[in-house]
Structures are given as C-alpha cells and as structure tokens.
C-alpha cells in the first residue's frame, strides 16, 4: 500500500468512534489494575451478555496497549460473536464500537484489506441507522463510551456523565442508560444540598424505578441518603431498608457487598464492614479498592481504641498495634495492585509515621508527591497528610503550617482544601490557648480571614502579628472581582467588551508596563477589573505587571474564536506553558467560544465532540466549563456568562494565588525541604 493510500486510510479511521479514538492514553490509565478489574468483571458478569460484550471490547483495547495484538484480536472476535448470538437482528448497532476497534487493530497489524473491510461494514451500518443524538452519535456508541469511561479512571467520570446524559435525550426510558447516568452522578457530585434537591438522589430513584432489582443502585441510594440522616429520620430508615433489599436480591455480588460495607463504615459499624469486605476479597482478591477500604476500617478501629484508652484504665496497646499492622498490610496490597493509587500511598506513608518508621514514611511521601503531581490530582491531600506528619511525628509545626497553606493553594477539590483550613484553625486555636499574644496565631488567623474575603479582620490580625514579632508574608487584601481574559490574536476582546457593554460597567482603561489592557468598572455595585492577556506572550507580559498577579484573578476566561482553527497541538503547548501560574489555574477557568454564529445553528456540543483531542483535553482541565458568545453577543448570552462567573467565584471562594514567576524554572518545591 502506498504511503498516500495509507494516510487516507488513517484519516478515515480517525473519524470512527471507538476506544482507539477516545484519547485513552496510557499515561491516564493504570493498565495493570484495569486489566485485573476487567478480568474479574468478565468472570462475574457471565450471563449478562450486554455488559460482557462491552467488557471484552475494553479488555481487547487494554491488551493492545500492552502490545499483545493477537490476544486483542481474540477478545474483539469474542465480543462480536456474543453480540450476534444474543442480540440477533439488533446486533449491528451493538457492534459499532467493536467494528471500529477491529478496523484500527487490523491497521496496526498492517492487514489493510481487513481494515478496509470493517470500514465498509461500518459505512453500511451508518446508512441503515438513524443517528438522532445532538452529536450525531448513536446511543449505543454513547452507552459503550460512558461505561468504558466509568471503568477506566476517575479522570473520565465527567465524560461518562455527558455520554449518558446525551444518550438519554434519545432514549429516556432505557434502564441501562439511566443506571449509568446515576452511577456517574454518584461518582462526580459532591452535593451539599438536601436529598430532596439532590440530582444524584433523583436520578438513582429514576434508575431504580426502571430496574427495581438492581442491587448496586439500591445500595448507592442508601449511602447517599445516610449521608443526610440528620435531616430526616425517615431517610435513615429508608437507607436500612434499601440495604436489606439489596442483600436479599444479590447477596453474592462483590460490588453490592463492597458498597454495603461502605454503608456500614459510614454508620460506624466497622466490624460488620470488615466482615463484608473480607468476604468480597474471596471473589475479587486483586481489588485495590477493597484492600483500601479494609485499611480505612482498621484505621477507624484504631482511632476508637485510642479514644477508649484515654477515657478508661484499660490498656488497648495490643489491639491498637494489631489494627495498625493490618491497616499497613492492606494499604501495601492496595498500592502494589494499583501503583497510581495516590490516596492509598499517602495514607500508607502516614501510617508508617504512626509506626515510627520515619525514613520509610518520608520515602513514601516523596513517591506520593511525585504521583500526585504527575496525575495532577490529590496534591492538596498529600500536602495535608505530610503537614500532619510534620506536626505530630517530626514536631515541626512551622513546616506543617507551610504545607497546609500550600495544600489549600493547590486544592482541586474543595473538601481537600477544607482539611488544610481546619488544620490551620486548630493550630491557631491551640497556640492562642497557650499564649493569647502569640504572633503566629494572629498570622494564621489573618490568613484565614483573608481567604474568606474578610479584609478588615485580616488586616487587624496581621497588625497584631507584627505587634507580637511575627512578620506576615505579603498576601493580597483586595476584595475586588478580578477577571483575566486570555486569548490568541485578540479573540478575548469580544468577551471583555461584551461584559463592559452589556453588564453595566463604567469603563476605565489603563495599560500596564507589560502592555496589558486593564478595564475597570462597576457591576452589581462591586468593582470589577478585566485584564486582556495574549496567551502567546502571557509570561513576559505578566512579569512586567506584577500588580495583576498579586492578588490573582477570581476567574480566567480562556477565549477562542470559532472562526479560526485554534484547537491545535501548538495551542495546547501554549496552554501547558501556563504552568507557571500554578495547578489551581484550571479551577478558575471557563472556556469561552466567540463568533458563535459560525456554528450556523448547530449546538456547541456537536462542535466539541468533533473538536479533537486538544479541545477534549482543555475542557477536561476546566471541568467542562464553557460558554458561547456571538460576535455581537445578545443580552442573554452576556447575562448567562455573568451568572457562570459569579457561580465559579462562589464555588471557589478565593482568588487564584500565584507564586513568583521568577521561580518557574528553579522548580522550588515545598515537598520535603519546606522551602517556599
């Protein structure tokens, strides 16, 4: 085959929807752990043909990633055979993803004739089937994509949620799609609302209504309800009833048992949870999740015994040491089965600290920091645990405080940031209790007031810190709303001008030393500053205009024109170069598409799904936050953008905190040395 024909073939392949085109890169997947879980799932789901067909498909792709093309082909053919056997006349739609995988696999095997054969089969299927979803994808494709994303990694959970949501627009009463959407919401939503207003609870009830015998859904609903038992006693009773029903329906299903164990642990019934989890290990011995859950149970038992020892004359030393030993054993198993398990490795490091093996603990913390930074997740959790390690086992409170503050700065999950704030609050209270005039206590209190936006209280505390001999580091005291509009070749002007022209601003324009255009005005009675920044020269410009950096923005608008081909690898490289602004940048970012009229009436979701891996990467980094503006935006487009900006500010609760740019290339790390 000529090189031109080969390239043309590859172009056709990239238009397919299958595992090979879903950006499932090896760096985002713990392959060994996924392979183990899929092997267990295939064994457990024999007799559930629809799921086994999907499992063999994903299993084959993992085998391909391992370089075993022959085994990959065997599993794809198994999937095809099962689909034809059990779906009869409807098998073609079930095999869209499978045939795409087969086409790609034969291409990689350089069997181009077979590759073209499967491409022709797919073209024939496409002509037969009506593609009614907004993206033009068949619901069966969205179904398989959603379940695959749920199985692979937490990084893909939001993508799974969108797949199920879109498929349900076409098939709203499909029980399997409703179940997938419910599970995706359960794994992604950390709602603080009551169960009455909970989207996750509502969707779980909907899925159970369509399939009342799905024991996994029953237990997930019980866990969500039990998290809010303080609201209603009836919800506590319902939770117990749901657990009893689930165990009656499917008592041997390890997924059901492990979730029931989670429910028991949540209720404080640790011995019951341990018994259930150990039973589950008999059928799923390679589950890192189960070993981690067992470790948490023994950690909880140890804490209870330690508290009882403080309040009585009983000596529980032997029982406490046994719980610590079992906790470490199961954590060791968890990280050996899943090398990318950041949370388990962090907990293992801390438990070695409790066992007074300080050297081992520090080595594991070093590894945990490396994993967290590589995966760009749980960085704040590692900082918090390392701070506790420094505070309690190394007796270095100063370094502990630095790590708590750094953990809060780098948080990607509000719950992890709250852990850091709670630890800082306890230190401040403890120091003030010992010495009401402790300067460091006032310094910490000033920081806590500052991040809440309580300017006057923060200044008062900082002044007292100075009075008692502690000089606070320079920290922002500005409570204005600050927005950065970052774009290529001036695309950001539309967003800035839209806000200024439509949102009631009094515009005052200034240009900083870096040539940045700074727009200032009033919206809803509050001062707002918009800084227009060219992405390609961002670092150079910001170095010259440090007043823009400190304090940093509350919201960053990443603006791209739909009339230009801007979603390229070059653009991705530029965006990755924004690392000098810190990892929390993405938590404050909204992608804004301008020139929306270029869509010609189509939905922006259609453009996104066809936008390629760079756009998919960008939206995942921004937690799927995006908005569309026309070249001449309507009032509703602008008001909706303003609402999204306010919502994001409310969600984050603090502006983006940025380190000095000059430190970018030195990579000064707080990791083990404590240098900031």
Written description of the protein model:
The chain is an alpha/beta fold. Among the domains are: 127 residues, Tetratricopeptide repeat domain (Serine Threonine Protein Phosphatase 5, Tetratricopeptide repeat, Alpha Horseshoe), CATH 1.25.40; 136 residues, Tetratricopeptide repeat domain (Serine Threonine Protein Phosphatase 5, Tetratricopeptide repeat, Alpha Horseshoe); 176 residues, P-loop containing nucleotide triphosphate hydrolases (Rossmann fold), CATH 3.40.50. Helix content is 62%, strand content 6%. The chain has 31 helices and 7 strands. It has a 7-stranded mixed beta sheet with strand order 2-3-4-1-5-6-7, covered by helices on one side. β3 and β4 form a beta hairpin. α19 packs antiparallel against α20, α21 runs antiparallel to α22 and α22 packs antiparallel against α23. It is globular, with a radius of gyration of 27 Å. The C terminus is likely disordered.
Tell me the structural class. alpha/beta
Looking at CATH, the homologous superfamily of the domain at 481-656 is P-loop containing nucleotide triphosphate hydrolases
On the 0 to 100 scale, the average pLDDT is 84
Gyration radius, to the nearest Å? 27 Å
- End-to-end separation: 58 Å
CATH top level class name of the domain at 481-656: Alpha Beta
Shape: globular
Total strands: the figure is: 7
Question: Which architecture of the domain at 481-656 would the CATH scheme give at its second level?
Answer: 3-Layer(aba) Sandwich
Low-confidence stretches are 474-479, 502-514, 660-676
* CATH topology term of the domain at 481-656: Rossmann fold
What is the number of helical segments per DSSP (H or I, 4+ residues)? 31
Strand content: 5-15%
Helix content: 55-70%
Kindly report the spatial arrangement of strands forming the biggest sheet: 2-3-4-1-5-6-7
Largest sheet, in brief, is:
7 strands, mixed
């Amino acid at each position: 085959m000529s090189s031109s024909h080969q390239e043309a073939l590859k172009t056709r392949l990239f238009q397919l929807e299958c595992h090979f085109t879903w950006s499932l890169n090896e760096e985002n997947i713990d392959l060994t752990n996924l392979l183990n879980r899929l092997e267990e799932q295939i064994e457990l789901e024999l007799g559930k043909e629809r799921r086994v067909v999907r499992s063999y498909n994903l299993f084959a792709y993992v085998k391909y990633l391992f370089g075993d093309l022959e085994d990959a082909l065997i599993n794809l053919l198994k999937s095809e055979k099962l689909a034809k056997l059990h779906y009869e006349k409807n098998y073609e739609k079930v095999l869209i993803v499978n045939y795409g995988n087969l086409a790609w696999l034969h291409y990689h095997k350089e069997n181009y004739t077979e590759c073209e054969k499967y491409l022709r089969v797919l073209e024939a299927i496409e002509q037969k089937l009506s593609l009614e979803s907004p993206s033009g994808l068949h619901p069966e494709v969205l179904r398989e994509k959603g379940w695959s994303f749920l199985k692979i990694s937490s990084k893909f959970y939001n993508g799974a949620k969108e797949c199920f949501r879109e498929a349900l627009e076409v098939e709203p009463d499909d029980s399997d799609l409703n179940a997938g959407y419910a599970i995706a919401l359960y794994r992604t939503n950390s709602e603080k609302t009551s169960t009455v207003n909970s989207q996750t609870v509502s969707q779980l009830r909907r899925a159970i209504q369509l399939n009342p015998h799905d024991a996994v859904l029953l237990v997930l609903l019980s866990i969500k309800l039990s998290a809010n038992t303080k609201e209603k006693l009836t919800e506590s009773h319902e939770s117990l009833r749901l657990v009893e029903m689930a165990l009656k329906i499917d008592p041997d299903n390890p997924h059901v048992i492990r979730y029931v164990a989670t429910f028991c642990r949540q209720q404080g019934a640790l011995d019951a949870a341990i018994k259930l989890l150990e039973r589950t290990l008999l059928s799923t011995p390679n589950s890192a999740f189960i070993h981690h859950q067992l470790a948490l149970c023994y950690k909880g038992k140890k804490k209870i015994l330690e508290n009882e020892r403080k309040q009585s004359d009983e000596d529980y030393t032997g029982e406490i040491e046994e719980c610590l030993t079992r906790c470490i054993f199961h954590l060791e198993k968890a990280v050996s089965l899943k090398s990318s398990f950041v949370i388990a490795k962090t907990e293992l490091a801390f438990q070695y600290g409790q066992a007074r093996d300080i050297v081992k603990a520090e080595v594991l913390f070093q590894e945990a920091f490396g994993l967290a930074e590589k995966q760009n997740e749980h960085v704040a959790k590692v900082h918090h645990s390392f701070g506790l390690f420094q505070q309690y086992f190394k007796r270095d409170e100063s370094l502990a405080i630095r790590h708590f503050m750094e953990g809060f700065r780098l948080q990607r999950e509000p719950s992890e940031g709250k852990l850091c704030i709670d630890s800082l609050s306890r230190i401040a209270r403890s120091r003030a209790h010992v010495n009401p005039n402790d300067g460091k206590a006032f310094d910490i209190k000033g920081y806590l007031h500052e991040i809440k936006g309580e300017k006057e209280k923060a200044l008062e505390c900082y002044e007292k810190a100075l009075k008692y001999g502690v000089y606070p580091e320079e920290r922002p005291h500005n409570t204005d709303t600050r927005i950065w509009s970052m774009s290529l070749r001036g695309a950001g002007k539309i967003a800035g001008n839209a806000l200024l022209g439509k949102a009631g601003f009094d515009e005052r324009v200034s240009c900083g030393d870096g040539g940045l255009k700074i727009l200032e005005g009033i919206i809803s009675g509050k001062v707002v500053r918009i800084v227009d920044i060219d992405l390609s020269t961002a670092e150079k410009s910001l170095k010259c205009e440090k007043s823009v950096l400190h304090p940093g923005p509350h919201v960053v608008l990443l603006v791209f024109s739909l009339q230009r081909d801007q979603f390229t690898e070059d653009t991705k490289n530029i965006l990755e170069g924004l690392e000098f602004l810190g990892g929390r940048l993405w938590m404050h970012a909204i992608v804004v598409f301008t020139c929306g009229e270029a869509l010609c009436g189509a939905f922006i979701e259609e453009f996104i799904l066809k936008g390629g891996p760079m756009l998919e990467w960008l939206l995942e980094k921004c937690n799927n936050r995006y908005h569309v503006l026309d070249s001449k935006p309507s009032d509703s487009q602008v008001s909706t953008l303003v609402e999204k900006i306010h919502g994001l500010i409310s969600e984050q609760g603090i502006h983006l905190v940025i380190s000095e740019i000059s430190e970018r290339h030195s990579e000064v790390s707080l990791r083990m040395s404590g240098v900031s």
